Amino acid sequence: MDNANLPPLPAVNQSGPQVCAVIRLYLAVIDDLTAEQAALLNAHIATCAACGEEFRILERATLLLGSAVATAPSPRIDAAIRAMLEGRGQRQQPGTTPAAFITRRPAPRRRLVSLAGGLVTAAILLLALFASLRFSSIFDTSAMHTAFALPANLSWNQYVLYHSETRIGAGGHLYQVVTYDRLGTGNMRVETKMENQIDVIAVGNNQETLGMDTLRHVAQMGADRWMVDDSLFDLRQLRHDFQTKDATYIGTGTFKGQAVYRIRFKNGLVMLLDMQYRPVNVLRGAVGPGTGEPIYTSLQLLSPSQVSPSMWDMSIPPGYRMGTLPAQP
Predict the structure, then answer these.
(1) Between the chain's N and C termini, which has fewer beta carbons within 10 Å?
(2) pTM
């Protein structure tokens, strides 16, 4: 196999299902690797139990194949292979090189014995079948499920989660909801805005919520209904949902050209995480890679330094009177 056609070997400190998929491709050609490539491979296998088991299975298969009793295929099999080869040769256009069926190369160092005559063809066919079965498991959805895990040291508490979305009101009118959520602290600021009709800012913490109608200069305490549900972005709850099977990893995909991990919840929503396990968006109605409607028109993780501390200020602005906020859209 031409190693130049393989994706680059991941660095030692990289992990995740995509990394394991690349590593297992290289396991199949381990005898053709350079010393540097083999060192990277061994470093990953030493820390990844799943890939280590994959390597042991390949080693065992090689040993079993090498210790097989040398036999020749039946005349019928030999005749069928010859007929296929001759048929391929007849289909070649004049002046072209006949298509290769088997490319011979010196026996790799992991094979214990040489196979002669017709057994070479049978052995290579057997290895090709075995490899196709093993590699198909790499991209099988159930295999990907077991390979995925959130890093133990992963935390989102150092970020402010910003997201905006467009909703449809009871009367069919569109309105915007913009949220700043200081993850890990309980501080949240949500602005709900409908052109020339509603502009309500709600600021809250774990104890209280202040709502402010910026059009009418009315303030109201206990305005919890103007907040949003960001429980999907509670990392501790997400870990728990994985344990209880309320959240399931369903493989990788792309979102706006970006590689993402996909996690489906029992309510059908699919969370997208980037390759550093940070939220990218949430989809509704997703039935497979590339499907589903993003809930948020924009979603970012911001540094607290990018957000003014006044965003969390729960004091009633001058000129506001206490009263009742308007009905929600």
Answers:
(1) N
(2) 0.58
